[in-house]
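Work package 3, deliverable 3.1, input record:
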Amino acid sequence: AQSVTQPDIHITVSEGASLELRCNYSYGATPYLFWYVQSPGQGLQLLLKYFSGDTLVQGIKGFEAEFKRSQSSFNLRKPSVHWSDAAEYFCAVDLKTSYDKVIFGPGTSLSVIP
Amino acid sequence: SQTIHQWPATLVQPVGSPLSLECTVEGTSNPNLYWYRQAAGRGLQLLFYSIGIDQISSEVPQNLSASRPQDRQFILSSKKLLLSDSGFYLCAWSIREASPLHFGNGTRLTVT
């Protein structure tokens, strides 16, 4: 069955430190891949997406992610975290069906220490 | 530009009462529409999706139903709410072919 795992439920980093959020998926082919961010009580905002081509993709707010086919991973990174980055982060895969069937990971909650 | 509106933002309803949550999309035609539910501390569960007017598919059996009376309007309903229906409900849209989902701001539903 298709699934998305985010091994870290919660991560705490200091402001200015680097960040890496892990994501692994289980799917027979290469899906479309996304990272979304959710502030408390809000909807989800797209950070970045991977469809094909260059496996290192750049997103908004200084985030980037790297697709590694051999590891079925799509980890999110940021070189220097800002306090405003504290939020919930969701990895998601689109299984390329006719209606964009998207499976979300359970999310990683990020806290930032000033 | 495209926008999505979802209301109400918060709702407190007693067990056994009906429910109606509404979502509308502006600035695009023939979107795919989705209802997700997010339980506390958990990921998103797809409840319903729609690829056109009156074309609704359910992903999980439940106490809820969805309707799409107009191209850009998506409604989530229940005849009798259960305590387990409490959660954060999110409406989303995407254009046809692979594209990111665009989410509304959500409705926090508390069933008491």
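Chain A touches chain B at residues 32, 34, 36, 41-46, 49, 51, 90, 92, 94, 96, 98-102, 104-107 (CB under 8 Å).
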